[in-house]
Amino acid sequence: MSLHSIATAGLRTIDQITYLHNNVRFHRKQNGLAITISLTTSSLPGAPVVDDKGTFIGFISEFDILGVLETGRDVSQLTAEEIMVQDHVAIHESATLSEAVQLMKHQHLLVLPVEREGVIIGCVSRRDLLRAWIGLGFGHNVCWQPED
Question: What is the model's pTM?
């Protein structure tokens, strides 16, 4: 199988990434220490914050928590709403992988929340996009062998 075959074997849109296993999201009233622990045990460097209806209202990254700690504040005494930045950068599930890549590249994002009808349904990381683009782990049996 050639490199070109691998690069074209993958998925084309975000909604084809059916697993969206990166469904970490925080509720606006969630405790800051619980959020910190969740991020340290997940594969994501950050996650969206949602309100009671699941609407995207902000984002918390490891850097945001480090910033709070650096100021001497106690994260266990804060809520997600007090820690989050009010970024609302997300992508609709029907967007193409290329659109997601461009958005992440231009906004310098490591994680991109995915929306459906105004509600966050999960997140994609750069690794998720790369795997989807080349078809790894999505039912495709892609195994690259160098050509002689």
Answer: 0.78
Each as own residue / partner, the long-range contacts of residues 101-105 (CB below 8 Å, 24 or more positions apart, any chain) are: 101/129, 104/129
Look up the CATH number of the domain holding residue 7: 3.10.580.10
Report pLDDT for 9: 52
CA gap 6, 10 in Å, rounded: 7
The CA angle 66-113-28, to the nearest 5 degrees, is 60
Q: Does a structural domain hold residue 110?
A: yes
Q: Tokens 């078809």 appear where?
A: 135
Collapsing DSSP states into helix, strand and coil, what is residue 57? strand
Q: Which of 36-40, 41-45, 67-71 has the lowest mean pLDDT?
A: 41-45
- What is the spatial distance between Cα 84 and Cα 80, in angstroms, rounded to a whole number? 6
58 HSE (CA, 13 A, CB side)? 17
**Domain total in the chain:** 1
Q: Which of 1-5, 115-119, 132-136 has the lowest mean pLDDT?
A: 1-5
- State how far the alpha carbon of 38 is from the alpha carbons of 30, 33, 50, 58, in Å: 11, 9, 15, 17
